[in-house]
Amino acid sequence: MADGSGHVPALAVGQRLVGMISNPRSHRHGRSVPSSTLVLRHPELLLFEPRDKPALDEALRTCALLGIRLLLVRGGDGTLRDVLSALPWAYGTHPPEIALIPSGNTNLAARALGLRPRGRDAVDDVLRAVQAGDGAFRRVECPVMEVRWNGDNPRRPIRGFLLGAAAFTAGKKLADDAVHRRGIHNGLAVALAVAIAIGTSLFRRSGIAAGNEMDIRADGHPALSGRHYLLLVTSLPRMMLGLWPFWGDGDAPLQSLAISAPPRRVWRLIPRVLMRRGSAQLTRQGLHSVRSHGIELRLDAPFVLDGELYEPGPDGVSVSCCGRIGFVTPA
Question: Is the pTM of this model over 0.90?
């Protein structure tokens, strides 16, 4: 097992060195094949279990220096977010392909992209496909969303697939406080948390329904300012449980939905939204969905990116797509 020291396993002729970032804190990690067993089974596997972001940076730099072009990521959406955010500092503009081994709370990206190796043998299946050759893989490309802090904020940009604010942030907190503790995970956890947030606010004019102050400027579209009940932005082609609350013309990679606060008759409009029947009626009811290449956001409360809360800072954040990442899964 690699610990960041750069130790490279001895390879047989023709074997391809493969890197793996594994999150030992992922909730299903204990049900996976132990790391020590994986290393014994697969001498071509360079395995890292970083416990903080500096260790993750070091692990990825080691992979880049060794020319590793396939990276297994065992964890949830948060693990994938951290890996994607750190890749530019290790690989520059030529990232490796990624094979997802979902073992986190939500695993939304893996589900949305159809990359769901199952069971204890998921890592073995991917590595067998490596030995069989490129034809043993199915490949999917997806645009990656990048969030940059504006002004003099020194934070490093973060990358991911789903940004949410206001009721979505409330749903995230509910998921942390209640849903996950009851053993509910994956896409169902996200859906239930958001449903609880919506259900507790539809008939009230305060609390979650009061929303948060936002200034939303998507390129080529009128600015939206004032209190908003919900904001969602994604670069994914679909979401959990088949839900898709977006519409809009064009083929720009970012898709967003903003709902003004307090929500008006949302319970009547939800079926139209989820069936992708966007119309002028939805806009009149305070629902706005557009496609864009970039969005400027100013928020008065934290936002969520792939399961983690972030403070927006006084100057807000810029959201854009920073290119596409290639994902592979055994065919």
Answer: no
